Amino acid sequence: GFTGQASSQTAGIPFNVTINIVDIFFNKTTADQSEVRIETGDPYDTEPATKPVLGGTTFFTVNMITESTWSVGAIDTDAYLATDSTSVYVLASSATKFLVILPGETYTPGSASGKSGPVDFNAGLAGVQPATASVTGTNPNFSVSVYLVDANNNRVRTHPTLYTRIRSPVDPYDVEEGSGEPCAGACPSNGNPQILTQGLATFVMALRTAATGHTLTAEEEITSNQIQTANSSTFTVVANNPTRLVVVMPGQTPINGKGTPAGEEGRSNTTPTPQTAAATPCFSTHVYVYVTDDY
Fold first, then answer.
1. How many Å apart are CA 128 and CA 238, to the nearest integer?
2. Is the pLDDT assigned to residue 163 strictly greater than 60?
3. Which end of the chain is more exposed for a tag (fewer CB within 10 A), N or C?
4. C-alpha distance from residue 252 to each of 52, 173, 189, 246, 287 (Å)
5. Average pLDDT, the chain
């Protein structure tokens, strides 16, 4: 009933589909006045409303948004005419933003958020990750995927050389691997920043500060491509196994995650408030001792 092959389409850009009513020899018939609708295989597009066929022909405007090869079918609402379908490949559109996928989440191109499923670090409680010291060795750590996507969250595999960096804005003491400058040639394994390969970069993270409301931010290292920064889903970092005691004197404050050799570990660098000798064996204020992990 036709010749040629359907041309590829771009996600998010509408295109027209022609529906003809034909006999068993694919001759167009003009007498039938059926109503038909279009159904596509794209789970995230919005399909056009049912339309009547006038003079044997009608037209639909279709706007598929998910990159893949999809079927496009015409269906008679009275089930009187045989259903017909063909296939069309939908390409990703231009890159506009990054998309951050955490452990437990599944990348779902074409969907509104681009991902599905809860954050799960396999730590016994969804969305919770123990504090860690390094992305190497035996300490717990986790991988994060950063995708380069179009406006409909389709992965853009063809792009110019592009560096992306991942940051943890809630954690001032995390381990961000890499020198902070674009790599010369190929980036090192687990480096930060990284060159995206076919629209994907994978980072191994180590967060130290126990807190709720953690997010990770993916951003372009050199902003010449004007790719939008993206934040991950929120998650919680909890304390790791207890290993030490931290004494906090009057005038000092405890600080989660500050388990670094430089400066005071687990507390502020402020000088303790001077105390006045008293006749009774006690301070006029309290000294706090905290049980902490290594961080």
1. 7
2. yes
3. N
4. 77, 19, 40, 11, 10
5. 82
Task: Evaluate whether 33 touches 52 at the Cβ level (below 8 Å).
Answer: yes
In the prediction, which pLDDT does 196 show? 92
Query: What DSSP designation does 109 have?
Result: T
Does a cis peptide bond (omega within 30 degrees of 0) precede residue 172? no
Torsion, Cα 50 56 61 64, to 10 degrees, reads: 80
Phi, psi (deg, nearest 5) at residue 141:
-155, 175
How crowded is residue 222: how many other Cβ atoms within 10 Å of its Cβ? 12
Helix, strand, coil percentages, rounded to 5, for the chain: 0, 35, 65
- Which one-letter DSSP state was computed for residue 152? T
pLDDT score recorded for residue 172: 79
Sheet with strand 200-205: strands edge to edge: 97-101, 142-149, 200-205
> Residues 58, 51: contact at Cβ < 8 Å?
yes
**Alpha carbons 54 and 79: distance in angstroms, whole number:** 18
Q: Which amino acid is at 158?
A: T
Measured CA to CA, the distance from residue 72 to residue 88 in angstroms comes to 7
Q: What is the pLDDT of residues 27-83, one digit of tens each?
A: 988 888 889 999 999 999 999 999 999 888 999 999 999 999 999 999 988 777 777
Q: Are strands 51-52 and 35-40 parallel, antiparallel or unpaired?
A: antiparallel
Closest C-alpha among 167, 145, 168, 146 to residue 214: 168
Beta strands in 150-249 (DSSP E): 163-167, 194-195, 200-205, 211-214, 217-220, 230-231, 235-238, 244-248
Confidence grade of residue 175 (pLDDT, cut at 50, 70, 90): low
Of residues 288, 220, 215, 279, the one with CA closest to residue 254: 288
181 CA to centre of own chain: 23
At 263 the pLDDT is: 52
What pLDDT score does 185 carry?
Answer: 44
On whether the CB atoms of residues 64 and 89 are closer than 8 A, the answer is: no
- Separation CA 107–CA 86 (nearest Å): 27
